[in-house]
Design brief:
Blueprint lengths: L3 E2 L9 E7 L2 E8 L2 E6 L10 H8 L5 E9 L1 E2 L2 E2 L1 H7 L4 H10 L3 E9 L11 H16 L5 E3 L6 H9 L5 E8 L12 E5 L2 E12 L6 E9 L5 E7 L4 H11 L28 E2 L5 E6 L12 E5 L20 H4 L2
Parallel strand pairs: 1-11, 8-9
Antiparallel strand pairs: 2-10, 3-4, 3-5, 5-8, 6-7, 10-11, 12-13, 12-15, 12-16, 13-14, 16-17
Length: 332
């Protein structure tokens, strides 16, 4: 079941609210000794998380299907980078990481009960009630399987949304009267946490096959005074690209970034242009972002405004510091 991105939290008696966890969405299937983990796109995850498989096998019930999130705790938050490290072809590496950085499974829906009968045609109100009973009976002793919080209290949900956190990615709103429709977005909405940061434009990339700017490369200064690459923005209107190119090209000057610099080709950007042009550190933009991972914006950002009033040296890494939510408060 998919979620529709919206700006405002929906209100009304028909809505249930849950934390939006920062992990891998995962459907768990248990049939006797067989356990399968499946990603949101239908890809198998079983071999990458053997500790989750073992936790599921330890559950007394022998047949069930769950919807939830795989996450790897790190201090009082979760590490998305540690999750990415698991998607690796070497079994020896996966087993080692499973011991060093064990994952947990956070459950938020019951798709088939312990008798194996599917529950997807039942409304969420009924599925949640059965999930809580199932969790009390079978998951209480499984420390690496946790039940996610859920509330119908709008004020409580808004508190979760305001958490400036490396743990939550926002909140999810679900219709209590809707059945579980695979691939459908009508009964589920996501409201993400967004913040802003002032960044130096340390360089840019031309658009593929064109001599106009396609994306801006963003940087922040660390405590040693080095300008580190932290992400990019490509939210530039086509009508503005020519003028922006004319504005920035005269400022091309190495090195651009004096600390961590943009990388070359990777498994994520095959076929895309990776050459970039360094700039004098003189232009500042305020950008909107949703999540930070490894001192970088995980996704592309959106330009809020240009900041000619801001000194580049004021654009520092401490803007990305994140407070952590209380995990025990959000997990039952």
């Amino acid at each position: 079941m998919e979620a529709l991105s919206v700006e405002e939290v929906p209100r009304g008696d028909e809505w249930q609210y849950e934390p939006k966890w920062d992990g891998f969405r995962c459907i768990v299937f248990r049939d006797g000794a067989t356990v399968e983990l499946q990603s949101k796109s239908g890809q198998p995850l079983t071999r990458y998380f053997p500790e989750v498989v073992e936790a599921i096998k330890s559950v007394k019930a022998k047949q069930f299907a769950l919807d939830g999130e795989i996450a790897i705790p790190e201090d009082e938050s979760f590490s998305f980078d540690a999750l990415l490290q698991r998607i690796h072809p070497a079994e020896s590496r996966v087993k080692r990481l499973a011991k060093e950085t064990p994952a947990i499974y956070i459950v938020f829906d019951l798709l088939a009960g312990e008798d194996g009968a599917p529950l997807v045609d039942e409304p969420l109100r009924s599925r949640r009630r059965k999930l809580e009973k199932f969790a009390a009976a079978h998951l209480a002793k499984a420390s690496s399987i946790r039940l996610s919080r859920a509330t119908t209290d709008l004020a409580e949900a808004r508190k979760w949304l305001k958490m400036e956190s490396a743990t939550l990615d926002g909140i999810i709103a679900k219709r209590l009267d809707v059945a579980y429709f695979s691939g459908d977005r009508n009964g589920m909405q996501k409201i993400k946490n967004y913040r802003t940061a002032d960044c130096v434009i340390g360089g840019f990339r031309y658009a593929t096959g064109k001599k106009v700017i396609g994306s801006l490369l963003l940087g922040l200064y660390d405590s040693a005074g080095l300008l580190n690459h932290v992400g990019f923005t490509s939210s530039i209107a086509n009508a503005d690209k020519k003028a922006l190119t004319e504005k920035l090209e005269p400022a091309i000057e190495p090195p651009g970034f004096t600390g961590r610099a943009p990388g070359g080709p990777s498994r994520w950007n095959r076929g895309k242009a990776t050459e970039w042009q360094p700039l004098k550190p003189k232009f500042v933009v305020e950008v909107c972002y949703d999540h930070v991972s490894g001192e970088r914006f995980r996704h592309g950002t959106r330009i809020v405004r240009w900041r000619p009033d801001k000194s580049p040296k004021q654009c520092t890494m401490d803007q990305l510091e994140q407070k952590t939510a209380n995990l025990q408060r959000l997990l039952q």
